Amino acid sequence: ESEAPDLVCEFDSVQGIVDALTSVRWKRHQDAVVELSEHGIVIIVEDRGCIQAKVYLQSELFIKYRFRSQGRPRFGVSLGLLVDSISIFSVPGRPNNIELIYPGSDMQLLLRSLDSRGACIYAEIRTRIPDTVSSDYNFEHAGSTPLSFTVKSAALKEVIDDLEWPGSSIEIKLQPTPPSVIFRGEGHGDLQIELGYYANMDLLIAFSCEHQVSHRYKCKFLRATTSNIPISVLRDNRGSKVSMGKDGMLKVQHLLSMGKQLHSHVDSVGNQQPSRIAYIEFFLKPE
């Protein structure tokens, strides 16, 4: 009798998972490391020495999640191939439950549709020994008070797009008096966009800063944090959180709704959770 697979899970939010994975796809050919645990699935993508991104698909997002490994299995896979394979299962206008199994008999990732109406779709994705994930993206706050702001995702994307010049960098400055975030781009010209907390409270939802700080980031990598934000996030008018950590490490966090809650879930302070959420995080090193 063959050993039980490390993971058997079932999900119905096909488009949501495609959107989450696409949000960290900033170039055509990218390799991803997939890590499995009892808590869920983490997909890690990076451009060494510059940027790392993670997609967290927590076990609560799945209709069924059965994890049987003693450790945390990891495997490497082409991100583009993974996105394209899951996209095949998307059926417009009606839900389609997908089963995911790892590993198969040859260490492959298996996907199959569970919809009895019509033909069954089946996919095998070849995996490989994973690359080593960089350990130097551990985010630490620069002081006792976090340096952070939360801004509407559409506004953040628009600011970064407006400041982009080929090969340029963007300076992000936080200042407490008056409380504001200043984006400054230099390239073929010089452009500055300021978001004052009191003047733009509809866009700048939250702000935390006790002392002025500024760092510069390569434009192409900063743009990667917003270039593929799903339309649903922009349409829902969600906020993205931007934090500056020790040595200027930038963390950009997006929340992606994956549909209505499958089960009634109450958090630690007694609030009922309205929807299933995928967490997307980018870590960006300064110039």
From TrEMBL:
BP term (GO), one: DNA repair
GO cellular component: checkpoint clamp complex
Domain of life, source organism: Eukaryota
InterPro entries, A to Z: DNA_clamp_sf (IPR046938), Rad1_Rec1_Rad17 (IPR003021)
Keyword terms: DNA damage, DNA repair, Nucleus
Subcellular location, record wording: Nucleus
A UniProt-annotated Pfam family: Rad1
Family: Belongs to the rad1 family.
Name listed for the protein in its UniProt record: Uncharacterized protein
Organism: Genlisea aurea
